[in-house]
Amino acid sequence: MSVQLDVGSWGLFCGHEGRQIVLVDNEACGPSSARKYTRRIPRELLLDENRITHAYQTGHPSTETISHHGKEWVVVLRPILSPRSGSLIGVLAGVFPSGGRLPGPPLVGAWEWEIERNCEGQPTPQRRTYWDRNLFDLYAVNLNVAQQRQGYWEAGEWASELIAKSDQMRVNSLVRDGIQEGLMGVTGMIRCLTYNIVTGYGSESQGRKHLRLIGQIVPVEPDDDKIIIQGFSFEVPDTFHDMAFVQDVHAGRVDDVLRGVMALAREPVAVVDVETLEVLMTSAAWWLEDFGHVGGLGEFVVHDPVVLYDFTKNAAEDTENSSSMKVDLRRLDGSVQRVSMTVIGARSGVHGRDAVIRLDL
Predict the structure, then answer these.
(1) Average pLDDT over residues 264-286
(2) Cα-Cα-Cα-Cα dihedral sign, residues 192, 193, 198, 202
(3) Cα separation, 23 vs 20, whole angstroms
(4) CA–CA separation, 240 vs 233, rounded Å?
(5) β-bridge mates for residue 327, sequence order
(6) Is 286 in a helix, a strand, or coil?
(7) Taking the domain 251-360, which CATH number applies?
(8) What does the pLDDT read at residue 95?
(9) Which H, E and C letters describe 221-242, residue by residue?
């Protein structure tokens, strides 16, 4: 897990209430639980204080200066709306040092498909894909051509003229499978695909880009006359590939359960990333014991870091039985206390594997 959203970077959040992340600046990641890919300061300001959730509820952009941990931060949220219906499909957000120049956000283009249904409810060849201004810029479509399109393409023209020949089957398969799943009621799952496009359509100078598509099927009701697919695209390096449809819909659900458990816990409890030992989520008791401002276990456990890492990682393999070890904790005042640390594993979506830790003081 090399990509992390830290202070000074933009993150692209999506999924239910923005609980998954797919891009940090120009580096693709996930989709996985946003908490796992977000470091402490942006995690606290964007996720713990529900600013991403609020942006999903309102769809309003915001920029505010906030005092946090003795420093001033600028918190920026820029919702991404689908070009046809204006549905919120993502949020670009970041936390930046106050007084500095804000870096430009990554170029993310939004799209929305409309597929007509016949009298039997089946999809027809009548299909349009609507684009926002950023997506036309991403494809570098000739300005005159873009104006003629009035914001949309006939899907057949888009697939045959703007998608690289080698990738047309893969892209068409994604659309086909998405449509069928929508008709079967399988909605709400994020679909990812990387593919090559032809840039400069309508001009003499044409090129090539490698894009990543992130999309979701809107729930299809029996009486709906259209099937809607919404999402966005952005450029990724040629070396980055989504080899399959990535599904991590359980990540937010697991986070909700853990948050509820921690709200009731009397002992200091934390969720820790087993790969980095970074503290992702804590109980109120953890804060009361002055452990709230540490970023990772290694910052306050007086122990061989290799032994601590191996124990935590091995204990997290078991999601049914806990393991315990004695550790020495160094508090903020410098004193050391020996306690029992109990660890059990927790799954967070397809990719996530965390450790839930309880401290018996």
Answers:
(1) 77
(2) negative
(3) 10
(4) 14
(5) 339
(6) helix
(7) 3.30.450.20
(8) 97
(9) CCCCCEEEEEEEEEECCCCCCC
Of 178, 357, 190, nearest in space to 278 by CA: 357
Using alpha carbons, select from 186, 192, 205 the residue that is nearest to residue 245. 192
pLDDT, residue 260, reads 65
Write the CATH number of the domain with boundaries 109-235: 3.30.450.20
Domain with CATH 3.30.450.20 in the chain: 10-97, 109-235, 251-360
* Residue found under tokens 């001009």: 203
**Helical H segments across 232-277, by residue range:** 251-264
Q: How far apart are CA 173 and CA 160, in angstroms?
A: 14
Query: At which residue do the structure tokens 């204080």 appear?
Result: 49
* 166: its two tokens: 């080698």
- Position 305 confidence tier, pLDDT thresholds 50, 70, 90: confident
Whether the CB-CB separation of 211 and 111 falls below 8 Å is answered with no
DSSP code of 319?
S
9, 106 contact by CB (below 8 A): no
CATH of domain 10-97: 3.30.450.20
d(CA 5, CA 30): 12
Task: Provide φ and ψ at 145, rounded to 5°.
Answer: -65, -40
Sign, Cα dihedral of 113, 114, 116, 121? positive
Question: In terms of pTM, does the model score above 0.70?
Answer: yes
Ranking 113-127, 140-154, 164-178, 197-211 by mean pLDDT, the lowest is 164-178
Contact indicator for 323, 297 with CB cutoff of 8 Å: no
The answer to whether 173 touches 184, Cβ cutoff 8 Å, is no
- Give the C-alpha separation, 89 to 216, whole Å: 9
CA dist., res. 215 & res. 110, Å (int): 10
Give the separation between CA 83 and CA 311, rounded to whole angstroms. Answer: 49
In the predicted model, what is the mean pLDDT of the chain? 84
Fill in the amino acid letter for 80: I
Q: Which pLDDT value is given to residue 38?
A: 93
Amino acid at 92: L
| 49-102 confidence digits (pLDDT tens) | 999 999 999 999 999 999 998 899 999 999 999 999 999 999 999 999 998 889
Token pair in block for residue 285: 């008791």
Distance CA 124, CA 120 (A): 10
Does the pLDDT value for residue 350 go beyond 60? no
